[in-house]
Amino acid sequence: MNVSKKSATKAGTALPPESDRLSKLFIAQQSASRAMVDVPLAWRLERLDRLQSLLDAHGPALADAVQADFGVRSRQLTDVADFFVLQATISQLKANCARWMKPVRVSTPIYLQPATAFIQRQPVGVVGVIGPWNYPLQLTLGPLATALAAGNRVMIKPSELTPRGSALLADLLHGAFSQDEVAVVQGGPDVAHAFASLPFDHLMFTGSTAVGRKVAEAAAKNLTPTTLELGGKSPCIVDASCSSADMKDVALKIAHGKLINAGQTCIAPDYVLLPRGREVAFQKAYASAVGRLFPTLLGNADYASILTDRHLARLKSLLDEAQSGGARVMELLPEDSGKAPPVGHARQMAPVLVFDPPAQSRLMTEEIFGPILPVLTYHSLADVTAYINERPRPLALYWFGTDSRARHEVLNQTVSGGVTVNDTLLHIAHHNLPFGGVGDSGWGAYHGEAGFLRFTQQKPVFVQSRWAMGHLFYPPYGERFQQVMGLLKKWL
Ligand code: NAD
Q1: Options 2.30.130.110, 3.30.300.30, 3.40.605.10, 3.30.950.10; CATH of 6-230+445-457
Q2: Is the pLDDT of residue 26 over 80?
Q3: In terms of pTM, does the model score above 0.90?
């Protein structure tokens, strides 16, 4: 039976006319998902195997494409942040898919017994995935793997700012999957908007808060549920309990979290909150950590370039504005600075520390997304929690110290998407921790079972017993009804 375009969309929603190809792909996926509602385990595992084989066979070519898109980005970074994370994700999905897709029995309250009840877990249908450029493989293929494990069809819109990586991804996925299973759509904001306007059964967006708002608006027109993985300013608190001896290790961990991918990481520490009086110690320790991680800058393949000239110009303008507002800017230049950059390495930006940044500057109100680290100082823990709570809720929060009372205070008095204590970034790598934002940093979390359930309809099923006494509650209401209600209330 053919499914007409009209009947394939949700009631009352019209597909945008300019997106004919998108509509056709969507309708093909929707028809396929409606034709196979009950998706067997074998189908799911076989798709995960296909994805793993694609990564095994074409990992180096994908890493080269990403490297070319960035100018400089080490293969090792793509290896750990994209391929290793994906492999761990696929392994975990394969190991748990059978268990996670099973119905979950729930206990039945005494007033409904002897009925039984369970929650049936079904694929939602067609999932849309819109990805950013900073970890272009992990952030498109991770949601893809999770949505396939949950039995769904998937359409992906990767970033137009990593054109080589996105084009290769499209070729490879179209070679490995039929387009009614997995389809890739390429293009800029116009295509992305048309994509977000499709009546998906779930739309997962990873990107900036500003674009996330547009995605939420487009999805709302179709009542499409969304997962928004956004950005923000993630604070990094150095507690007074960190000794001078600890500072070296603390600064190294902060520098690593900040400078991996040259600060172009959603959960990078955006700024540091430091006990007043520790500025010199931190400055020295951070400078030495930077020197240890990146002894040279120009042409150092371990230190990523800023993606485009536009992104680099924005970072420089944030610095200029802060400096003209009175901030002290300290560029951490390695020994080879001053030399001409090798071809293709022109956008490697030296790490920068900024002390006393003006509160209203863009540096302190926008997500930085580059190798600039503002340092703010505080008197008391109450100052710290007040500062964080007066601002949009961050995607991540970092706390360093040994005083467990202070740690509890910060954990209890602040709300963030996630937390790593005494390190940076690592909560994202723990696949039993749901990963996501809160408020302006997003909604809905994925990874592990949380991700599987994000793309799963949890359908409650109530099964009445033939011995049920429900008729005792039927009208006409009289004395019998009163007696039964009285008895039931005693049982609660
Ligand atoms: P972006 O928001 O500019 O773009 C992301 C995607 O949205 C791209 O594919 C783009 O084409 C698409 N897009 C553009 N306009 C659109 C529209 N009107 N409707 C629908 N989609 C549209 O983000 P970016 O610059 O690619 O990535 C950087 C941002 O992503 C940072 O803010 C970072 O913090 C965030 N990020 C978040 C996470 C997370 O897991 N929370 C991970 C990585 C990056």
Answers
A1: 3.40.605.10
A2: yes
A3: yes
